[in-house]
Amino acid sequence: MSSKLIAPSILAADFANLQRDVEMVNESEADWFHIDIMDGVFVPNISFGMPVLQAIAQHAKKTIDVHLMIVDPDKYIKTFADLGSDVLTVHYEACTHLHRTLQAIKAEDMKAGVALNPHTNVNVLEDTIKDIDLVCIMSVNPGFGGQSFIENTYSKVKQLKDLITRKGASTQIEIDGGVTNKNAKQLVDAGADVLVAGSYVFKSNTQKETIKDLKAIANS
Ligand code: DX5
Ligand code: ZN
């Protein structure tokens, strides 16, 4: 079984010390940088935009996983590719022509991800799963860090894993929101491949140790 990945969410970093926090992730056992882009329309919050991502990308030495919580993501696919995104995830709920959006992301040589809000059933991806590199299951309502984990996520991950297996797809499953050492193992056992963790990592006094422990639990 391939190793399970940890993706610290920069939304929870100290923005006044962004380079320091990016270097911490570089030096840690984390695998990816998870970058949350919020537009204040699709979600009730605004995070940060292109100049900040550019600053992060200048220092980041690991995969850059961008999570777009914005309406009309098609407009910005090329921009995010040019900024160095490796994985670009759009919300199912924000895409009228999801299949076209996925092709456009891949045409820019990025991995194509689709995020599902807590109310969206995985079966909406029946007809596109083979075109999706990563499904991000939201285990909180998108918009804010530090929220508590929604327990229904476990069964959703299992349903998605079944769908991926049944269709012969090679899609990775990412979990985003409220991930801690308490739910990591159960998520991986249900089929998760990538665990995003924001506040759990950045609120820790021993951030690198926390990442290392989370990675060990996920791979135990
Ligand atoms: C929520 C974001 C998450 C968030 C996770 O809208 O998509 O990536 O940063 O933060 P925690 O781990 O604190 O729930
Ligand atoms: Zn996210």
Task: Explain what you see.
The protein is α/β, with parallel strands linked by helices and 220 residues long. It has a single domain, classed as Alpha-Beta Barrel (TIM Barrel), CATH 3.20.20. Helices cover 34% and strands 20% of the residues. The chain has eight helices and eight strands; from the N terminus they run E-H-E-H-E-H-E-H-E-E-H-E-H-E-H-H. Strands 1-8-7-6-5-4-3-2 form an eight-stranded parallel β-sheet. The structure holds D-xylitol-5-phosphate and zinc ion.
In a few lines, what is going on in this structure?
With 220 residues, the chain is of the alpha/beta class. The protein has one domain: Alpha-Beta Barrel (TIM Barrel). The protein has helices spanning 18-27, 50-59, 77-82, 98-107, 153-167, 184-190, 199-202, 207-218, and strands at residues 5-8, 32-38, 63-69, 87-91, 111-116, 134-138, 172-176, 194-197.
Question: pLDDT under 50 segments (min length 5)?
Answer: none
Please compute the radius of gyration using only Cα atoms. Answer: 16 Å
The amount of helix comes to 25-40%
The CATH architecture category equals Alpha-Beta Barrel
Mean pLDDT: 98
Class in CATH?
Alpha Beta
* Bound small-molecule species: D-xylitol-5-phosphate, zinc ion
Q: CATH homologous superfamily, by name?
A: Aldolase class I
Spatial shape? globular
Largest sheet descriptor: 8 strands, parallel
Sketch the topology as an H/E string, one letter per element.
Answer: EHEHEHEHEEHEHEHH
What count of domains describes the coordinates?
A: 1
Strand order of the largest sheet: 1-8-7-6-5-4-3-2
Question: What structural category arises from helix and sheet content?
Answer: alpha/beta
- From the N-terminal CA to the C-terminal CA, the straight-line distance is 11 Å
Count of individual helical segments: 8
Extended strand count: 8
Annotated CATH topology: TIM Barrel
Strand content: 15-25%
